[in-house]
Amino acid sequence: MQLISRQPSDPAPARIRPLSVLPVFLDLQGKRAVVAGGTDGAAWKAELLAAAGAHVHVYAPAGDVSSEMRRVIDREPAIIHHQRVWDAASLEGAAVALADAEGDDEAARFEAAARAAGAACNVIDKPALCHFQFGSIVNRSPVVVGISTSGAAPILGQAIRRRIEASLPPALAEWAALARRLRDRVTERLAPGPCRRAFWERLVDRAFGPAPTADAETELHEAIAVGSAVGRTGHVTFLVVPGDAELLTLKSVRALQAADVVLFDHHVPDDVLELARREAGRIPVSRRGGPESSPREIADMMVSLARDGRRVVRLRHCDEMMAGNAGEIEALGRAAITYDVAPGVGTVAATVAATDVAPGAGFQRAGRDRVTRPGPSWILFRRSVRGFRSRPVRHPLPRLLRE
Fold first, then answer.
1. Which of 26, 76, 275, 398 could cross-link to 326 by cystine, CB 3.0-4.6 Å?
2. Residues 6 or more apart from 296 whose CB is under 8 A from it?
């Protein structure tokens, strides 16, 4: 079997594009946090720090405390109010230090004191003095989603948060809490690799539905016991990739994020490959301007990987359609390896646009192209100035797209 590797002139795609900031999550449970100032802006940050489990110390003279800060202090037992101005000593032992400073001089002094104390610093409305930023938050704790626009457009961050809020059911928090309770037993009973991942995927498949019932934990404990004794057979998913990653279906994205190995042709855009999980192996089976692995070599590779319990995703660009996968599919059938197809939304449309053929099957529009589907082939009639051509362009497709 010949594997085609990329040449120096044909670099491997980056696993992730450049980041303006690195999203990290701080564990502040039981740690000291300092807030200097009694403004409404400082009140919201103090409330966030308390929600994360920090012991929050607010430094502000009584006359400088806003009504909102007073409500937060009275409501949150984890917040202690010191009725005086902050000093360098008040930052000792702090993990996080935040200030709503009255001027540039105080802001600079606060940042210097925080740095000397080894505390991560944030000064409200002074990005140059901030060691970290607060973003928009979607809270399904223990699942927490943070959103940042790097200060470029906070309103955009809020709009993104609303979209994510609508897509994540509240019950996700209960499923995540259940997963946390099961983690130690899963680690003890299931070996790392396919078996363990299969269990977590089984839980995740249910996590976006109704809240777990009283029997859910018992059922999952039984699945752990069964999973420790039963091996796992791999699976192959064929993806026909449109030119734009945004045209991928949710099924396609889920398949990429569950894949152990991704086999791809050089036409596949890098932004599609980036959707695969970071740990997945990426194997190019062709390179630009060079030789390609034969369908049999690719099929043998897929069979071997699937027999090892791997989830394999086979990516082909829409321009190549699916005809090239016929030999690979036949090999999987002979080896009794299961497979499925998750075409992108734009697969047929993108191909039709490239060949100037109207999308759809079994439809006819006056003055437009039409597509008929008589049996083992799709017959695409190209548009011409005077109507349909007398000779159709025939594209045979394998069984999996005729069903």
1. 398
2. 327, 331
